[in-house]
Fold this sequence. Notes:
mainly alpha, 7 helices, single chain
Amino acid sequence: MVLLPDYPQRVINEHRVRVEKFALLGLLILVFGGGWWLWPAVQGEAELITRSGPVAALFLSAIFLSDLIDYGPVERTRIGTASNIAWPGILAMAGLDLSSQDDMVASAILLFVAIVLRSSAATTFDYSISARRFRGLTGIAGIAIAIAVMAASDAPSTLWAVVIIASLASIYPDLSSRDEAHDERKQFAQTLEDAENRMMHLRTENSGLEKAAS
């Protein structure tokens, strides 16, 4: 069987078209779901703050859904950054209202989404020290959003503790992360500084040493 030279590219293009159609369908579903969820708040039948958080998450998900079509380094970084910023706020929204069974189901779904986003961010920015520190910096923005959500919704103290502890448990190791050669570099720098100080001391005593060589 002889394949035409452009056969692999045609297969790739057909697959891309199918993925784009699926992404477009998902985008329309997310936008429609966000509008449907926000409509009672627009009509004054529900509180706007509690409704706006999930709607914002749905709309942002619709925006980033197109990045899954070409999942390259730039798209992966963008999705990882958005996931790392979003998960503390979603975790905060998951515990705002647990008064009914429907609210508990919705909270469980939001909790699952927060866990998935946290896992995505952890996987995306786990390849180097600089990436982990970047994850920690973007996590600060995430915890700030979570604090704003809880402050605006009069969240209970238990939720404050859970969200802040979970966020700090993720941020602190990232910001304080060091590579394996950190101690060796620190020891070498200290040895080099001691040698330079010794040379400068010998020079001040007119030992014949013209200059310090590092």
